[in-house]
Every structure is written in structure tokens, then in C-alpha cells.
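Worked example 2:
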Amino acid sequence: MGLVPEIDYGTPASRASETVTLTIDGREITVPAGTSIMRASMEAGIQVPKLCATDMVDAFGSCRLCLVEVEGRNGTPASCTTPVAAGLVVHTQTERLKQIRKGVMELYISDHPLDCLTCAANGDCELQDMAGAVGLRDVRYGYEGDNHVKARTGAGGSEVNARYMPKDESNPYFTYDPAKCIVCSRCVRACEEVQGTFALTIEGRGFGSRVSPGAHEDFLSSECVSCGACVQACPTATLTEKSVIAIGQPEHSVVTTCAYCGVGCSFKAEMRGEELVRMVPWKDGKANRGHSCVKGRFAYGYASHKDRILNPMVRENISDPWREVTWEEAFAHIAAEFKRIQYQYGREAIGGITSSRCTNEETYLVQKLIRAGFGNNNVDTCARVCHSPTGYGLGQAFGTSAGTQDFDSVEHSDVVVVIGANPTDGHPVFGSRLKKRLRQGAKLIVIDPRRTDIVRSPHIEAAFHLPLKPGTNVAVMTAMAHVIVTEGLFAEAFIRERCDWSEFEDWASFVAEPQHSPEATEAFTGVPAADLRGAARLYATGGNGAIYYGLGVTEHSQGSTTVMAIANLSMVTGNIGRPGVGVNPLRGQNNVQGSCDMGSFPHEFPGYRHVSDDATRDTFEKLWGVTLSNEPGLRIPNMLDAAVDGTFKGIYIQGEDILQSDPDTKHVSAGLAAMECVVVHDLFLNETANYAHVFLPGSTFLEKDGTFTNAERRINRVRKVMSPKNGYSDWEVTQKLAQAMGLNWAYSHPSEIMDEIAATTPSFAKVSYDYLEKMGSVQWPCNEAHPEGSPIMHTDGFVRGRGKFIRTEYVATDERTGPRFPLLLTTGRILSQYNVGAQTRRTENTVWHDEDRLEVHPHDAEQRGIKDGDWIKLTSRSGDTTLRALLTDRVSPGVVYTTFHHPDTQANVITTDFSDWATNCPEYKVTAVQVSPSNGPTEWQEDYDELSRRSRRIVGKLEAAE
């Protein structure tokens, strides 16, 4: 099988359209203007020796190994920093160059350990390779004298070597060995140019130079975010993954897709047999372009964690311990229970929830099982609690329910608006690409109650930060539109050509009303009118304007309204349909876009077609051989309500932990407790499994074939790199359950499921595994009209015909502050953890975030006698919990913030059941709370801890960990 080959061209590709012809080693070569001689040589198959050069960062020219001779020019210029020119005649190998390169290599090796046979990089060391390439056979300078290699020098090691530094083992995932550093600066440049953190520097001068994290700190204590860019860039064993040190060099690799956030990074899973050695970002991945974050790069240990459940389990009552059964027994038990419930309570008494962490194919099968096997449309997905307003709002305005751009588009943006999103934490690889564009001169507007890292970080500062009061998104968006319309900054030609002019006139008259002005809205949004006007003018007049938004937009009672307001802004300024612009939802989970595409909503079949549409229903009825219901089914909140009412009794939940992730935890637990057959299909005994009667062990993304669809609509292949530890991939589990329910399914591979998706879903019509192998990835719609996919949507016209301007009246949430609950709680994520933490809490990522903390402004803390690190009680109208305080001015006075990654906090005990008016997406981002000192856990936490302990008992085994 072997390792997936990747060519390092030494310097980045030039984007120039004009070409230049030159001669290198007797060959005539034509390349884009601005290409380096090094890259031109490599493209011609001529490898110039190099150490400080790599095509992920700009040329540097420090190692002096890549020197060439150019006829008619003096000296020996570095090929990495010398651009091509028409007519140049270049020689890469002459006697003079050979001697220079040998001399350079001698100097490197004279201050480098000679432990190649026991070095972790043996077989994957560029220094070793270059020594061979230049023909180094001897080191004339010897190995004595000043060096960074030996801890002690002198006769018999009698003297301490002040230049020596021991290994830095502080980072849980990689080591830093200064003795092996050649000071090529590749790691420093990768941290600056690729990641944008600027955590590394070169300290000292001359022979005393060395790489330093921060101000001579260890890696863990520094600002390093462990993205792995430095490790990937290092040409020696100076920065090495601890997994490579422990296991050895990989012998084969497989390209697959990360299973964390919605960026959808491509990785090479590098293996020894069926053991994963490391994950390396794939340079040809079109979403990540060879970059990664700490989660995708390193946090895969959960796949082999001891907490994984590998055998099916059943229990009669949720108070009983689990007992392990065979797969056949589990399927038979579920089928019998579901049939009994439907016989006793009616066809609508059961349903299911699809997973945004599973593949498109697996999600498709779950909704098919519910519609064809259960005979109803009671199917929903976690998008209900995150981006369902995106689907509704963009569908109304543009006619399609997804973002408009690819991630490459940000490289063409002049003004970027980030609203309700924290890309450096939630979508860090995209965040790095955004920061790079901002360093190049693009302007940034941040609309967020909290001062996120993107507001101000090294070499970046937002032109405007609008710290609005939680819940006032619609008012701020409409006020921006007010400025654009009343000051005549709208794109009239675009609107007349692409939108409905009469609808625009109606909308324009609405936003122009005095109550929508920044001065009028400042009183309740908290955003200074002058700043809001400045931001609106910048977006309207600053060139290509792009809007990126996240759950801070959608998880509100007016989430859908805000999405439509964002669409209005993009249309009124003409910022739609070309690179650098658009409306871009940053999706939270790896396949939340795909789960929506695959028909996971109770009112829609795959491809966002309503269940009442006769033609669509006929397509599926003929293929599946069943009669399908034309009535929309129950959403997740409706299922829980119906369970409490006694009419909904059974549920199949694949890869979703609704007890921890959904709002109003007490209501969720009441609904689950009222059901008679709860089936949880997951990797671990999660919080929802506390109320389950059947547990089906799941498989990780490393153990299955399939596809994920990321936030830019990109369909990426997921490839199996090891056998499922539980015996089956998730699609096989769902198929066997369907067979137990009496369905005649006989898929032999997920490619057959994708073929069925393509046959029934117009936007996927041309998608197949063979086509994805050929193209690498495609963005839907991918059909006869768009055979190579659609990186940019709405280029010639909107999917719905003409863009629709919609009035967006601000309606204050029913969740109000008052004397009892004077503060507003909002929630979010942190870089090192993911969603409910079931995966990342089982990795070394806990070294950065081992508990949820409540961010409190120092003013609010002082009023309540709270100090940093104190235990505090957080109370709302729904419930209470305890956690520790983190005093910070990131939040405004009157606003508190926490994450929801740890189940012992149970942050969603606090959140309410208020939701978006159109989609029932919960209002996580606005909860009225009070904060007070505490000296212990709440009664709810104590009761819940006891429930969790009891629910994880397994007959014949020690207590299973969550």
C-alpha cells in the first residue's frame, strides 16, 4: 500500500496568469511569473537540495544549501528566493556548488547529534536526506568545542555545557529537542504564516540562536495552540510526535476526513498495520490546504480509549445494570419492542434522531429506516439545536439552505464580518486562513457580546467590535441596513438585475424608519451608534464583503430572522455570487451540513424537498417499495413533549447526546424517562444512555467508509483505516436493525448507498465514489448542470430565481432579566474541546481545559464577593448548577459566559425551552441568570452524579466510565 506521496516544491505556487520560459540544467521550462527557481526546478523534476525551504511558507533563504548558478550573474543566489525571469539559464549542479553545499552540510552536522540509528526521525529526516544528496562523507571540523549537543563538555564531562538545553516534554503530543535544532526557522514561520499565533521565535544571535516558545517558556506554558504546523514543518527530529517516538515510522497511509468541526480537514492517517501512528494534514485537502488544529491533528486517542463500549447491551429498566448480549439478540429485542409500542400506542409512537458525526450514508439509512420501517416522519437531527435557522432563512432569501462560498473565497475578501462566531476556537483552520487574509490588509468587523481572540491578536485588530447585548442581533443587522439604505450605499444595479425590485422597495422603506436607526437601537443593543454606522459604511463600501456567522446567530428566538437579515445585507450591497463575498454559516459538527442534506428533518426528504410533494414522495416510494407519509413528523422538542404526555414511547438515537447538548436538561430527562424503549447507538455510555434500555456500540471515523459534507458543501471521502473494534461500521448496524424490522435491505458497501442518494437527490446526481476518487472532492450541487460541483453559489442568479428581501422586525425575547436574574448567560466552545466533550475529554486535550468555567466581568464579580477561581452557583428560572469563576473583561458587565463540554457541570440545566419561531432551534445564547458564591454542588448535580454512577453498571464488570 505504501505512504501517500506528497511533493514539497520548496516555495508556494505563484498565482500569476502570465508565464515565463527559462532553461534549467539544459531543459526549457515554462512557469507562472513570480515562481522561484527552486519551484520551477522541482516542477521539472530537478530536486535542488534544501533545508530551510518548504512550500507551506514563504521563501527565507537562510540555509544556503539551495544555491544555484545563473549564467550572466555573479555569485550563487539561493534558488528559493530568486524568481524566474525570461531567458535565464540556470545550473543546479556544478563543481563550485558541490563544494559549497558540502561545506554547509559539514557545519550543520558538526553541531548535531550522531544518533541516527536510534533517532525517531530515522527514515524521515531531511537533514539525513540532504547529507546524502550533497555527498557528505566527512566532517572536517570535528565534534569538539562549542556545541548544543552534549550536556557536559571537557575531559570526562567535567564541565556543564551552558549552551545545552534538555528536551521539552511539556506538550502532551510532541517533544522539542533543542540539541537537534538546525535553526532553519521553518517552525517559527509556520507558526506565523500558516497558523498565525506567533508563539515561536528565534532567541539569541549567531551560534547562540535557538527556537524558543514565547519568552523562553516551555511549549505547554507558551501561547502555542498545538496545531502541529511546527511539527510538520520541522526537517529534523527537533519537533517530533510522541506517538512516532513510541511506535516508530508509519509504513502506509490513507487519506480520510476529520470527524470534528464543520471545516472538514483532509488528513493522511499514517499507520503501522492497524495501529494509527499519526494524523498528518493532507496538502491537497481543499478545505484545509495542509493545515490542522489540535483536535484533528492529535486528539484521536478516544478511538482506542478504554471507555469504549464494544458489545451490545440491554436492560429492562433504567435502574437495572446493563447486561451484554449478542448483536442478534439486541436487534431482535429492539424490533420486538418497537413493534409492540406501535401496536399498543400507534404508528407515530416511535421515531429517531440522526447523527451529525456519522457519514452521509449512515444518516441517509437512519432516516430511511424511520420513514420506510417505522412508517412515519418522526426524524430529527442535532441541526435542530444549531443551524436549522440557516436552512430556513437562506432557503427563504436565496432558495437554498447552505452557505454560498468555498473556504478559498476568504483569500479574496476585503471586508469580513464575523457575527456570533468564534472561528479561532470553533473552526480554527478556517480561523487561521482568515487571520492570514487580515494580515494582508483585509478589514474585520466583529459582532459579538464577547471579545473573542479574533478581535485583537498578533498583527490583527478588528476595525470595529460591536459588543451587542445578547438577543439583539436582529436590531443590529437592521440598523446596519438602515445606514446603507438611508445613505444611498446600496448596489442598485445588482438589486435591479438579481432581486425583486418591488420587494426591495418595501424592505428599504421598512429599514429606513427612524426606529431602526443606530441612534434609536443603541439604547437596547448597547452598540454605540457611531461604531455601528462606521461598520455599516465599511461593509457597504470596502470592496468584497463577506459575512461569516455561527451559533451566536442561530441559537436565538429570532435565529431565522437574523439569518434573513444577513441575507438582506449581502443582497443590498451586491456581495453575493463571486469570490470574496457571500453568506457563510460556520457549521459546528463534521457532518451537520450532510445530515441536513440527507433528509434528517421531519418535514423534508433528502435534498430539502417537502414530504407533502407528491412527485418527490413517488420517487422514494417506487425505490423503497413502501407507501410514505405525507405529514411532517415530530421535531426533537415535540418528541419529548409527546413522551411526557404519554403518546411517544420509543426512540433510536444514533451518535447524539441530547441529554447533555439539548436545552432544559430536566425536560429532556423527563421525556426520556417516560419512554419504554430508548436505543442509544454511540461510542461511549454517554449522558443520554443513562435513560437507555438498549446500547448499540458505534464505530469511529477511522473504522468506516463514507462521506462527510462540510460547511462549504464539500463532499469529502471518509476511508476505513482499521477494522471496527465493535465488529460493525455504523451503516451495517442500522441495516441489520432494518432487517430485523422486516426491511429487505442488502447493501454491501457504502458506495451503493451513495449511488441511491445520487439517484434520488438532484443536487447529488453526479456524485459517486469513483467520481470523488477522480475529483478529490466536490461541492454540491454536483449534477449535469454543474458537473464539477459549485464552489460559489448564485453566480448568475439565485436558486429561487430572484433574491427575496424580507422584513426583519426585531422582537425581544421572552427571556428577560430582572431583580432575581439580572445577568445574561451565553454559551460557546473552546479550542481544545469539542461539543459535549465525549471524544476530546478522552484525550490529552484535557490538559488545556479540564472543566467548564464561568466567565464573569470583574465588576459583576466584585458586587457579589466573587474572586477568580471561586466556586459559584449559577441559577436561572430552569435550574441551577455550580462551577468555578473566571474573572475576565472579555465579557461585558451584565453578561456571563460558559462552555458546555463537561457533563458534571450540566450547563444546559440552566438554559430554557424558548426557541426560534420558525425552526424550534433552542435559545441557548440568552438565559437570565444570577451568580452567587457556593460551597458545593447543587442538589441536581448530586442526584445526577448518583444516577450516572448507577446507570453505568455492567453485569460482571467494574463500573463503566462515561
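The radius of gyration is 29 Å. The chain has a mean pLDDT of 94.
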